[in-house]
């Protein structure tokens, strides 16, 4: 037996041990923990996308053990791991994974980013973008005109920050406005198109998942209404409104013009 043949046997045995002891329960416990704290105050900074971290591990294993039979086993393990992550995320958010022929890593990456690691960003961005886009309708519908002459600290401060007087009044009454929006409902398509994704990213997500119930009322409203985290979300939304309402914001303008007229916002 040659040295090369001996090495191949050792490598196969080592990889067999790696696969045998690959702890998917440990991975899923990390996923479950991340889902549980995705909207906690301590999680307001974006968390790492663990799907990307695990994919690096899979690639390192394949590169180290360059054996066709064994790498195929790793590929199966990789696919099964990502499918289980996708199923877990979809189950928690009452979504249906709607396609079979798709790269599971890419699907897991975007769903984890959208619904776990950057959940706070996308949710708060949706509220902020809706407020900026529909400022006139909200201002009139909530009869906020009477608040224009208020001399309270919040109103005076926001009038100095915002160039648009209506948005300034809305920002000063952000708690009431968010409560008002929570009484509405929005289609899943409209949320995905208007929560901060590029058009291409939004179309990809909408191609792979669909809601089994109202995503807005089951996933966003309970969290934004939670007294423990609500103040931090309101502050976050207020800061986003300031950025989005800034004249010449090309990112917001591009998203607004490609989605508002095409997607029905209300379920």
What descriptive keywords fit this protein?
267 residues, mainly alpha, 2 domains, two-stranded antiparallel ribbon, 15 helices, 2 strands, 69% helix, 2% strand
Count of extended strands: 2
Molecular shape: elongated
The average pLDDT is 80
Strand composition percent: under 5%
Strand order of the largest sheet: 1-2
Using only C-alpha atoms, the radius of gyration works out to 23 Å
For the termini, the CA-CA separation is 69 Å
Instruction: Compute the number of helices.
Output: 15
Q: From the helix content, strand content and strand pairing, which structural class follows?
A: mainly alpha
Portion of residues within helices: 55-70%
Main sheet overview: 2 strands, antiparallel
SSE topology sketch:
Layout: H1 3-20, H2 24-36, H3 50-64, H4 68-92, E1 95-97, H5 104-117, H6 119-133, H7 135-141, H8 153-161, H9 165-172, H10 174-182, H11 188-193, H12 199-208, E2 209-211, H13 215-224, H14 230-244, H15 250-259
Antiparallel strand pairs: 1-2
Helix pairs in contact: 1-4, 2-4, 3-4, 3-5, 4-5, 6-14, 7-9, 8-9
What does this 3D model show about the protein?
This protein is mainly α. The protein has 2 domains: 3-117, no CATH class; 120-259, no CATH class. A two-stranded antiparallel sheet has the order 1-2. The longest helix has 25 residues, at 68-92. α2 (24-36) runs parallel beside α4 (68-92) and α3 (50-64) runs antiparallel to α4. The protein has helices at residues 3-20, 24-36, 50-64, 68-92, 104-117, 119-133, 135-141, 153-161, 165-172, 174-182, 188-193, 199-208, 215-224, 230-244, 250-259; strands at residues 95-97, 209-211. The model is unreliable at 1-12 and 256-261 (pLDDT under 50). 30% of the residues are buried. It has 15 helices and 2 strands.
């Amino acid at each position: 037996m040659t040295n090369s043949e001996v090495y191949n046997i050792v490598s196969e045995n080592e990889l067999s041990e790696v696969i045998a002891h690959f702890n998917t329960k440990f991975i899923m416990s990390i996923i479950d923990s991340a889902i549980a704290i995705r909207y906690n105050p301590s999680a307001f900074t974006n968390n790492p996308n663990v799907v990307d971290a695990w994919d690096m591990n899979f690639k390192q294993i394949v590169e180290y053990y360059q054996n066709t039979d064994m790498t195929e086993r790793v590929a199966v393990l990789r696919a099964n791991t990502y499918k289980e992550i996708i199923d877990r995320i979809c189950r928690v958010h009452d979504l249906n994974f709607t396609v079979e022929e798709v790269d599971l890593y890419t699907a897991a990456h975007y769903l984890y980013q959208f619904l776990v690691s950057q959940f706070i960003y996308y949710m708060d961005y949706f509220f902020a973008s809706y407020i900026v886009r529909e400022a006139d309708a909200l201002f009139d519908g909530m009869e906020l005109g009477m608040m224009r002459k208020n001399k309270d600290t919040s109103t005076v401060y926001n009038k100095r920050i915002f160039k648009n007087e209506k948005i300034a009044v809305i920002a000063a009454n952000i708690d009431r406005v968010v409560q008002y929006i929570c009484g509405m409902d929005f289609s899943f398509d409209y949320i995905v198109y208007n929560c901060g994704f590029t058009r291409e990213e939004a179309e990809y997500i909408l191609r792979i998942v669909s809601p089994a119930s109202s995503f807005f009322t089951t996933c966003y409203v309970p969290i934004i209404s939670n007294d423990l985290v609500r103040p931090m979300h309101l502050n976050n939304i207020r800061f986003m409104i300031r950025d989005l309402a800034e004249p010449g914001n090309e990112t917001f303008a591009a998203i607004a013009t490609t989605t508002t007229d095409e997607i029905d916002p209300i379920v």
